[in-house]
Automatic annotation (TrEMBL):
<protein>
    <submittedName>
        <fullName>Abortive infection bacteriophage resistance protein</fullName>
    </submittedName>
</protein>
<dbReference type="Pfam" id="PF07751">
    <property type="entry name" value="Abi_2"/>
</dbReference>
<dbReference type="InterPro" id="IPR017034">
    <property type="entry name" value="Abi_system_AbiD/AbiF"/>
</dbReference>
<dbReference type="InterPro" id="IPR011664">
    <property type="entry name" value="Abi_system_AbiD/AbiF-like"/>
</dbReference>
């Protein structure tokens, strides 16, 4: 087993970066940033500038890399907001569709979904979410008044985005078509794939992961976009996807000009 690297002090971190050719304009400022940012997180933004000999490309500066980090931080916050808009819309679409077709509690019936095993796992996970959210007033209310039975429009409010995307994928074709015809005018096969892709992006953003120059699971591209040289593992294609899933054009415009 390879021995782990020994921890190094902030002063040693500065010297290591300088030794690899990074220009550090203000050492005290750089030390302060590293003491609040984490050397490992900071150096992830240096990867595109790293040469084969482990040194950094000529002219690479600490200030430049920190500016990229701050840009990534701003982008991450913007993406969290706009993906949240998509997520809330799909909570509404799914809840409304199932409620209108099967009633408040019809979502618990396996016959109303494609895959019985997925549905059973969904119900088990929903129980876990009810336990995790047991201190919320609306869950306490339904526990006291309705013996813990949640109507679909309440249940969707405690589902993580990943769970919601799996619920959508398990809807019967008629329900997916209803959503397409009435709410989201996107091919249901694309929506299946895109919600899963946005779940990965959302989780990365929520855990303060790096979005800039990161690779994500492959995103399915619309036929009309295949002529463009999109990298279907980068964040830009996720932004393209979001454009088609945002219902309110004003929300998209606000995101786009931010």
């Amino acid at each position: 087993m390879t021995k782990l690297k020994r921890p190094i002090s902030f002063d040693e971190q500065i010297k290591k970066l300088e030794g690899r050719g990074l220009i550090i304009e203000d050492e005290e400022r750089a030390k302060f940033i590293l003491s609040n940012l984490n050397y490992y997180r900071f150096t992830a933004y240096l990867l595109p500038f790293k040469l084969d000999d482990d040194n950094y490309a000529k002219g690479t500066s600490f200030k430049k890399i920190y500016n990229i980090y701050m840009f990534d931080k701003s982008l991450r916050l913007l993406l969290m907001d706009i993906v949240g808009t998509v997520e809330i819309s799909f909570r509404t679409y799914i809840a409304y569709t199932l409620a209108m077709k099967y009633g408040a509690y019809g979502y618990t019936d396996k016959r109303n979904f494609i895959n019985e095993d997925y549905h059973n796992k969904f119900l088990l996970n929903l129980e876990l979410e009810k336990q995790r959210n047991s201190s919320k007033l609306f869950i306490m209310h339904h526990n006291e008044i309705y013996e813990g039975r949640l109507p679909i429009w309440v249940a969707t409010e405690i589902m993580p985005f990943g769970m919601l995307s799996k619920l959508y994928s398990n809807l019967l074709p008629g329900e997916k078509t209803f959503i397409k015809n009435n709410f989201c005018k996107v091919n249901v096969g694309l929506v299946n794939s895109w919600l899963q892709s946005l779940t990965h992006l959302r989780n990365e953003c929520a855990h303060y992961g790096r979005v800039y120059n990161s690779l994500f699971p492959v995103v399915k591209i619309m036929k009309k976009h295949r002529e463009y040289d999109f990298d279907n593992r980068k964040v830009f294609i996720h932004i393209v996807v979001i454009k088609y899933l945002v219902a309110d054009q004003k929300n998209w415009n606000d995101f786009f000009i931010s």
